[in-house]
């Protein structure tokens, strides 16, 4: 797959032409990765090249910069391949051998990276918005900048913290559930609610690994079920401007939106939600006109500094649909989000231009 890139110092660009077909017209050395299997194969071959260098040299290998062009789903595929390929590399030096140069697609959750680098922001603008209007010389200048970014580097490196989503999934027609650990950088979102009540348990300001983390200690599925842990949590009435210092809380409600996010520079997570309003019929019984604002027009709520969160439907016969950095997972019995991936690979190194 990487036969066209025998020299590690030259780097390479990975993308999915299926998702972004016009990239095939951009004259850069790119590898088409249409599936997660191909993405993992590409990253594993890059890691193998670095390993071969280490086996035949006493010095450390040069930094390998891997270009990534794509949306949230593709970037998450790169992240998962990176975490899996370095999982068995015990030496911490491996965390310094690879860096990723990311050009996020328009409207990507990772566009915040471009806000940290004016040159990267301009490069994204040239590729996604101005490419068809650029002259030949301007296009050459853009591609040269992309090549220099990978070969010469020179920009700062930011280490994005990797979060962990544990999804408890059920298969159709089967009572036995299975677990999936998914790394994420930006967002975990509950996609469909169907007006079902949801139970949330969250821990705040716990910078260390939470107790009974499933990557550290194997636990029975009943032990991980949030419904069994209600008694150990203090029930809190969370409000947007609450200044009460709490370490843990619990909420049971019907939600209109429910999103767990993390900004580029924050080690902990933020819980963002809007509760569902009461039905119009109930308001009409109370003498309220349709569309009239009431106290039940719930404002958005944000809970910051969350280290761990557990979420499940209040009904045992209902499932959730969860979106993790662009990937959609259905038939989720419950899920858990932790602010820190529970292996030694705790951050995703991103190379900037400036």
From TrEMBL:
<dbReference type="GO" id="GO:0072659">
    <property type="term" value="P:protein localization to plasma membrane"/>
</dbReference>
<feature type="domain" description="Phosphofurin acidic cluster sorting protein 1/2 C-terminal">
    <location>
        <begin position="237"/>
        <end position="353"/>
    </location>
</feature>
<feature type="domain" description="Phosphofurin acidic cluster sorting protein 1/2 C-terminal">
    <location>
        <begin position="34"/>
        <end position="191"/>
    </location>
</feature>
<protein>
    <submittedName>
        <fullName>Mediator of RNA polymerase II transcription subunit 25</fullName>
    </submittedName>
</protein>
<dbReference type="Pfam" id="PF10254">
    <property type="entry name" value="Pacs-1"/>
</dbReference>
<dbReference type="InterPro" id="IPR019381">
    <property type="entry name" value="PACS1/2_C"/>
</dbReference>
